[in-house]
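anyone seen this seq b4? input:
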Amino acid sequence: MGMRFANLSAAVLLFFLVFSSSSVAGPVGASISGKVTLNGAAPKPKPLDLSKEPDCVKMHASQPLFPENVVVGSDNGLRNVVVYVSAGAPSSTSFPVAPAIFDQQSCHYATHVLALRVGQEVTISNHDPFSHNIHPLAKINREWNKIQPPGTPPFSYAYDQEEFIPVKCNIHPWMQGYFAVLKTGFFAVTDQDGGFTLPELPPGHYTLTAWHETYGTRTQEITVTGSSAPTVNFSFTAKP
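predicted toks r here
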């Protein structure tokens, strides 16, 4: 009787160890990567007119500022595209603890397109030696604008609705950017060569959307099976 009980206990323990090992170490999802490209020639950028702020003219005398609405890198990779799971993403009510950072520095927005979650704070700072007036042009969320003199501390704000929000400076008209406020936490903004990697997704069927301020949106349906996920590429067509 004692030997039989010992054998049964050993078998139960072995099953528990195998089950625990497979559920902890086994594949639970996959990270999706890809590239966004521009099909055709990007418009030739012209230096921005900074004449309304003499300090900016001096600051960029040798290195002019250029618009960032269409920026391409190697192999026509398109920068500043927001790629996100627009349908099928796992539900989550938790928000990132760390705020998203939006800095005004050297006469422009250090981050042209800032992606963040609904409910996540964005902390806005001014590192220039002159005032800025940040003005996010929300239509679904509340619209506001706030002057930020040099040397003043950063301030924070959070949005409660999903929206792509243009941002401008009421003092310096060339300063333009975007807040991409998203319900999902599965998103990325393409790098200088159009590449992106999304956080790991569990197995399932999803809709991916790529958003660009000039060229609009593209969508694709994908399926994640175990630890296997497709490479997802998007292409936008340059305007004549």
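The two ends are 86 Å apart (CA to CA). Residues 2-27 have pLDDT under 50 and may be disordered. kinda curious what u guys think
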